[in-house]
Amino acid sequence: MLKTTCMREISEAMQKYSRDVPLTDKLPTDDLRPVLFGLFGEVGSVMASAKKAYREKLAYSGYRSSFLEEMGDVLWYCVALCSRIEIDVVKIFSDALGGSGAECLRAEDDSREGGVEIGENNPAGPMLADALLKMGSAAAELFRIDENRGRRSHHVSSFAQSYLRVLRCVDIRLDEIIRQNWEKARGRFLEPEFETLPIFDSEYAEDERLPDQFEIRIVRRSTGAGQLQWNGVFIGNALTDNILDADGYRYHDVFHLAHAAVLHWSPTFRALIKRKRKTRPDIDETQDGGRAIVVEEGLTAWVFARAKQVRFFAGQEGLSFDLLKGIQQFVRGYEVEACPLKLWESAILQGYEVFREVRANGGGTVVGNRGSRKIWLGPL
């Protein structure tokens, strides 16, 4: 049995969220179309997620997390829309909750993590399927918002009611949606505060810490292979591109150096300079061991394949959200998942800026500084 959460708490959660959303809103404020397209697209993503769960059943293990994420994005666009058309989204949702039951907000037993495990049995059963169709229909009506300016509040209210009906069907709390979506939006769009970022090895002795500053030469050997040189000593293997279409992947160690400087994480670089955290066998095995190295190498190769299609990110000031979410999936379960997506974006863009120079020059000296979380190419 679910309990009613007081409307004051509901209003406070929505008020804070509605104030925060504009901080992460990069879309034009004088054009409703991008926001409407985004909202309708996210509603479609919710339905696509339900369709996958219906088709694959328990094989679709990520249904609940996907559902939560997509519903959070729907809410974000709804708040952004209300901000543009000057409608009080807090009142809209408060009124909708008053009519549909405030039990959508919080389950009585918080240990259930938001209620039933959607994804079990028939995840797109009749109740949820009907609620999703109603939400899709209500979202479509929002496209008429400019035609019916006098009915804007009515259209948004209908959508809010359908949205909450979906949450009630799957027993997911509205406050959980708000919390998770804000964490995602903040990590993606807001510049991180350095003092709040993870360091991972600050409590270890110097010989188990990544160096605070480093200069690594990338040397082109007589064979054409690239190899790292630290303090005059060659480290790691001499690398070639390992592909018929020469693309400079022999210099991909630049990306590990960028990870070390910006994210304070690189099991590959730790292994190369022999600074694994051996005094903590559990950390040595799970965070610095072979599997973590494979994850970083795989991630690096995957991003490289994407970067190769767009001139190695030359001229780009940002990365696609899809790419960053893919990275998030790659590193799940490892300490670096604590790093916000905005920091990942910085590490990748800085790394590729240096990579393009190293590739053009056939080598160079890469300088990294963990204090400033920067990486750059030193004098040739």
Q: Provide a count of the helices.
A: 13
Helix content: 40-55%
**Low-confidence parts:** 1-5, 100-117
Instruction: Estimate the mean pLDDT confidence.
Output: 88
Q: What share of the residues does DSSP label as strand, in percent?
A: 5-15%
**Main sheet summary:** 5 strands, antiparallel
Largest sheet: spatial strand order: 3-2-1-4-5
Order of helices and strands: HHHHHHHEEEHHHHHHEE
User: End-to-end span in angstroms?
Assistant: 69 Å
Q: Which term fits the overall shape?
A: elongated
Task: Domain count, please report it.
Answer: 2
Instruction: Evaluate the radius of gyration.
Output: 24 Å
Helix/sheet category: alpha+beta
Number of separate strands: 5
Q: Helix and strand layout, with pairings?
A:
Elements: H1 7-20, H2 33-56, H3 63-84, H4 89-100, H5 126-141, H6 152-170, H7 174-189, E1 213-220, E2 226-230, E3 233-239, H8 253-263, H9 267-272, H10 281-286, H11 290-308, H12 321-330, H13 341-361, E4 364-369, E5 374-377
Antiparallel strand pairs: 1-2, 1-4, 2-3, 4-5
Helix pairs in contact: 1-4, 2-3, 2-5, 3-7, 4-6, 5-6, 8-13
